[in-house]
């Protein structure tokens, strides 16, 4: 037994008809139709809509998280270096006030957009640019919205 039930002792008695955990999990998991899979994909899969290469996120996200932390550490070090020497309550108060005066830098990642929204946007953009037929584009957008169970406009 691995994963859900670590030992035969923790395997629930009501599932004794199943000889192992894998058989049990296969029995309780629902098989999905291709239409359900596509609906879930449109709703849960996400795409980068920021306008940058989606592969570059692998390097840029850690870099963007690192830069503000580095700047904050550098600033604290600079302020504390200036206050080196004998302990003086006035100087200590001035250093603390100087550190608290400026808010620390931060960075926040924004969520990627759901695949269904991206597909609708791309179809609409193709129609606007004259690449795709307007009637056919509207029908495709309606089909995507129907699959996502969104109200049709």
UniProtKB/TrEMBL annotation:
Q: Where is this region: Disordered?
A: 41-74
- Give the highest taxon in the source lineage: Bacteria
Residue ranges annotated as compositionally biased, kind Basic and acidic residues, are: 41-57
Task: Tell me what this protein is called.
Answer: Uncharacterized protein
Q: What spans are recorded as compositionally biased (Basic residues)?
A: 58-74
